[in-house]
Amino acid sequence: MSDKPNKLIEKGKRLDGRKVDELRPIKMEVGVLKRADGSCYMELGGNKAIAAVYGPRAVHPRHLQEATQVIIRYRYDMASFSVKERKRPGPDRRSIEISKVSREALAPVILKEYFPRSVIDIFVEILQADAGTRTVGINASSVALADAGIPMRGIVSSCAVGKVDGEIVLDLTGQEDNYGEADMPIAMTQDGKITLLQMDGHLTKEEFAQAIELAKKGCKQIYEVQRSALISKYEGVSNV
Amino acid sequence: MKLVIPGDLLSDDVKRAGEGTYVTSGEVHASVYGILDQKELRVIPLSGKYMPHTGDNVIGKVVDISFSNWIIDINSPYEALLHISEHPDRIYPFDMGQHLDIGDLFIAKVKDVDATMRVELTVETFNPLRGGRLIQISHTRIPRVIGRGGSMINLLKKELDCNIFVGQNGRIWVNGKEDNMDLAIQTLLKIEQESHTPGLTDIVRDMIKNAKREKGK
Amino acid sequence: MSEDIIAEIKRDYIYNLAKNGKRVDGRAFDEYRQIEVETRIIGNAEGSAKVKIGNTQVVVGVKIQPGKPFPDTPDQGAIITNAEFAPIASPSFEPGPPDENATELARVVDRGVRESGAIDLAKLCITEGEDIWMVFIDVYVLDHDGNLVDASALGAIAALLNTKLPIVRYKLGTEDVPLPISDLPVAITAADIDGEILLDPSLDEELIASTLITIITGKDGSLAGIQKSGMGPLTFDQIFHITDLAYKKAKDIREKYLEIVDDQSREEGKKD
User: Fold this and answer.
1) Do C98 and C202 touch, CB atoms closer than 8 A?
2) Which of C103, C54, C97 is nearest to C83 (CA)?
3) Residues facing residue A52 across a β-bridge
4) In Å, how far are B67, B73, B93, B109, B127 from B99, measured between CA atoms?
5) Which of C81, C72, C131 is nearest to C104 (CA)?
6) Which residue among B124, C5, C47, C168 is buried most deeply as judged by most CB within 10 Å?
7) How far is it, in rounded angstroms, from Cα C192 to Cα C205?
8) With an 8 Å Cβ cutoff, are A154 and B7 in contact?
9) Which helix (H) or strand (E) holds B12?
10) Reported confidence tier of residue A239, pLDDT bands at 50, 70, 90
């Protein structure tokens, strides 16, 4: 990582030219994998990730199955080359924690009672990491679940907010995360229920409230991208 | 035609809520990604696994035989059971394999599905499918294979001179002359691929015509 | 299990077509599915490539960092190849450490790169006996629709072709230089289906093939690696037929997908 710059925000502009309440550029594509039941590719700034959904399918081993509802598994994984220093392939403490909270971010919207005794597997592969990977994973997974035809109450959208140079900002870069004062990833449903909330750093109560408001704005924008990605998969479909 | 995604508000007439929707605080929302059928207030999914319903005609494959059940793969997250008592004669558990053996494909009807998705099948005959070819496509495309009032499937049967059985679980069995079977499978895979293209019946009719002309050369 | 069922369901269809010289997707026996090679897709990697062969997709990232040499080769760089069958790629892939298939894939890719002499390891020595460059080739399978070996091997060499040694980052100089590449190995995989030899098997073909065989050849047409994978035996005639086919096909693929990448890399190398 480069050394700490003097200022991360100058005259209301961040180092990459964004305003404090602006997301990085987003690209999203649905149905990118043939074998998966549902899939989604997402870029957010320098992040590149693929989410795939398999299921509902039979649970092995059988003792894990639940008689009245589907179980959800989520595996977040970073490719060895996704970061500057090669990462050893496979899970570590960080990815295990992210997998857990991401699963919990998505599970509440899935209509689990439709598929007793089965499992839905959500797999996320981070091909390139650039701060905010867990939010990218959740956004792509939410769309992949819809693509797989899984019944849900709605789409989950996620973004990070934080505090940098004393200001509340949306969608932190790696540098802002490293040298800023706080980082807070959030996921929420369209109707404003928070399903993921983590924070590290330091925020006053007022700043926290302000950050939540900004996160709502960010998630709404993400939602519009998710929606149009799904709709455009079948664009041109006119007669059924 | 309108595409909807999970969570979309569809109506406030909760009495009309159909398949692919859910009701919350007096509103009907879409629960799946698919095509909205305004008339029935339901969402027709574009993807997803086959979920058996009582009365469905399916093509099953025997994957195991237990003491009193044949265990059947029906291209679903759930295996189905065919109980020994479904056989018209009194047969012994150790003879079950002689009637339907592991690996056999056969036509069945879903007899019952309970709340925990335990699926029971029944059959008209215990004859496994012999000869012919089987393909598997997404079950969501089956309505297109059949067509309005059976228009597509009747076209295929007539033009290709094949016997075709369409299972609601996405498996289709075709029997006829070699060349006709190859063409039938090609055509069915095309229907799966282009199932949302308008005027599909005409495209398919032309495709078969061209293929026949090619062969005639 | 359902994967096996699908293959079995299609078995007769595939066999029957093969007997008549045909394949399910209409290809000739020696014809590949559409190949796409995209390079420099991972900014954090020193080299990268995404390869698609039909629906099969792999991403290969090359990471390079200084390390200690092996005691028996104190003046040579090291190649470490790993393959991850990411569970996103197939309903039959499960999370966990590489299984025997992933390990076999990694070793076959490694063999092609190593034995063809594609990387001049002597040029990767920083200080003899002390520091060398370690080349990590990481293959991630994204979508498995058959013939992972050819896609991975092509991805590996395409990624190596746009790899630069991170000299500046490790403060070993003022300019990053391209990794020296001296050969372009290409893997060609054939499947034996009821005695017929088909190149670039799709997953359905792979699942019912009695055996697969991969032949890796270098620029001069010499063999750099072979791997027979599967239970079925092959005759001598079949093997000579396959090596013949492999040599010709490898040449085509090399010309079409690698020499272009090679030229591009040099051009861009000059610019930087």
Assistant:
1) no
2) C103
3) A39, A123
4) 14, 17, 11, 17, 8
5) C81
6) C47
7) 9
8) yes
9) none
10) very low
Q: Which two tokens stand for residue C192?
A: 């034996």
For chain B, first and last CA: distance in Å? 42
- For chain A, what is the largest distance between any 2 Cα atoms, rounded to a whole number of angstroms? 59
CB A58 within 8 A of CB A127: no
Which secondary-structure segment (H or E) carries C103?
Answer: helix C100-115
Handedness of CA C151, C157, C163, C167 (dihedral sign): positive
User: Which among A55, A116, A152 has the least Cβ separation from residue B6?
Assistant: A152
Residue whose tokens read 């959904």? A53
In a domain, A104, yes or no: yes
**Domains identified in chain A, total number:** 1
| Closest of B39, B40, B46, B43 to residue B9, by C-alpha | B43
Closest Cα in chain B, distance from residue A22 (Å):
26
Q: Which residues are B109's β-sheet partners?
A: B57, B122
pTM, 2 dp: 0.93
A10 inside domain: no
> Distance between terminal CA atoms of chain C?
51
Q: What is the pLDDT of residues B82-117, one digit of tens each?
A: 999 999 999 999 999 999 999 999 999 999 999 999
The CATH architecture that domain B133-216 belongs to is: 2-Layer Sandwich (3.30)
Q: CATH homologous superfamily of domain B57-122?
A: Nucleic acid-binding proteins (2.40.50.140)
Look up the CATH number of the domain holding residue A105: 3.30.230.70
d(CA C218, CA B71): 51
How far apart, in whole angstroms, are the C-alpha atoms of residue C177 and residue B132? 61
**Chains in contact with C, where contact requires at least 3 CB pairs less than 8 Å apart:** A, B
C226 three-class SS: strand
Contact between C265 and C178 (Cβ < 8 Å): yes
CA nearest B83: which of B117, B126, B135? B126
Q: Does residue A96 belong to any structural domain of this protein?
A: yes
Instruction: Enumerate the domain spans of chain B.
Output: 2-45, 57-122, 133-216
CB < 8 Å to A109, chain B: 6
Please, which residues bridge with residue B65 across strands? B70
**Range(s) of the domain holding residue A72:** 20-233
Nearest of C210, C207, C185, C216 to residue C197 by alpha carbon: C210
Integer Cα distance of C66 and B150 in angstroms: 68
Task: Output the tens digit of pLDDT for each of chain C's 272 residues.
Answer: 456 666 666 787 788 889 889 998 889 999 999 999 999 999 999 999 999 999 999 999 999 999 999 999 999 999 999 999 999 999 999 999 999 999 999 999 999 999 999 999 999 999 999 999 999 999 999 999 999 999 999 999 999 999 999 999 999 999 999 999 999 999 999 999 999 999 999 999 999 999 999 999 999 999 999 999 999 999 999 999 999 999 999 999 999 999 766 665 655 555 44
pLDDT at C16: 83
pLDDT at A1: 46
List of chains touching B (3+ CB pairs within 8 A): A, C
| CATH fold label, B2-45 | OB fold (Dihydrolipoamide Acetyltransferase, E2P) (2.40.50)
ipTM: 0.93
Does C16 contact B178 at a Cβ distance shorter than 8 Å? yes
% of chain C surpassing 70 pLDDT:
92
C3–chain A nearest CA distance, Å = 11
- Taking CB atoms and an 8 Å cutoff, what residues of chain C touch A48? 41-42
Same topology, domains B2-45 and B57-122? Answer is yes
Task: Enter the DSSP assignment of C257.
Answer: I
Domain membership of residue A44 (yes or no) is yes
